[in-house]
């Protein structure tokens, strides 16, 4: 729950967050901290950058605005689960079957970018070591 207050018209408004009834401040802090511990910020940033790049590339491939891109889902975790680049390339090309522009450069670049990522579901906690 948030409360917005302003003490005079020239001062900036402040937002105060209150803990839900029946919970202690420490419980809320622990819940908020779990997300940052579970997923490494660097990996999340890489994933976000990749998603933004994919959207940019798809707008070029389909020659349209972001909102007009055909409904398709390039699941990075699914691509990471596949054993070979050939399987990954086939999957992405299958998703882009209705694209009238050449997609080979996009697919090649996407596969290169995916190689540096980890699955989000298997990311080690911040205090744990990643598997060899």
TrEMBL record:
Residues 1-29 are annotated as: Disordered. Pfam families: PP1_inhibitor. InterPro entries: CPI-17, CPI-17_sf. Transmembrane segments: none annotated. Residues 1-12 have a biased composition (Polar residues). GO terms for cellular component: cytoplasm. Residues 55-82 form a coiled coil. Belongs to the PP1 inhibitor family. This is Protein phosphatase 1 regulatory subunit 14B.
